[in-house]
Design a protein that fits this description.
This protein is an all-alpha fold and 203 residues long. 68% of the residues lie in helices and 0% in strands.
Length: 203
């Protein structure tokens, strides 16, 4: 579902009003394993944890032999809930079942965000690295990601982490990111944030 994908990416860029709307539209038309994981992840990232978990646990109960559902998508939703509740140290433990599936999950984004929020910037860089290594290979890349697909989001997280201990590397990452976003809409908040953060490195 395009709405379900939109829910995840809109949540990842911090637009929770848009993410909730997209998730509800997605679930109004389909509540299967095709749609629920992305919609639920968007909801969970934006603080709608109980509803998201209820939907995801229902799908997992219906498809107990579906590895992606039980080992990747359900842990992702639980990790997103922990992240939204600021239980950063729980995120890696929750995501352990999904560790073998970085290219079919949002594992790098969730781990990286948790490490960044917990003020472990060097760990955050390591967490984001798989997402940067295989540009365009991750599920959903370019399909609803709009101006902020997985690679760009991971690069932004990497730059923000590097800024805390290696400003030269951070500047390079920000410049690479802004090259990707050079045609972004003028009101695209993340691109504008990245420009300000790059400028601040030189102060």
């Amino acid at each position: 579902s395009i709405y379900a994908i939109e829910a995840t990416y809109t949540a990842l860029i911090g637009n929770c009003a848009g993410a909730r709307e997209a998730a509800h539209r997605a679930l109004a038309t389909d509540r299967s394993a095709v749609t629920v994981p992305q919609a639920a992840l968007g909801m969970a990232l934006c603080g709608d944890g109980p509803a998201a978990l209820k939907e995801m646990e229902r799908v997992a109960a219906e498809q107990p032999m579906n590895t992606l559902v039980t080992q990747v998508f359900l842990p992702e939703v639980k990790a997103a809930i922990a992240l939204s509740q600021r239980h950063y140290d729980d995120v890696a433990r929750i995501l352990e079942p999904a560790a073998a599936y970085p290219l079919v999950s949002k594992l790098p984004q969730l781990l990286g965000a948790a490490s960044l929020e917990a003020r472990h910037p060097e760990q955050a860089v390591n967490d984001y690295r798989p997402c940067l290594r295989y540009r365009g290979a991750t599920v959903g890349e370019g399909a609803g990601g709009g101006q902020a697909p997985d690679y760009a989001l991971c690069l932004l997280g990497t730059a923000r982490a590097q800024a805390q201990f290696d400003k030269t590397a951070a500047a390079k990452s920000y410049q690479q990111l802004l090259e990707i976003w050079k045609h972004a809409d003028t009101d695209f908040a993340l691109a504008n944030d990245a420009k300000r953060e790059l400028a601040a490195l030189g102060k």
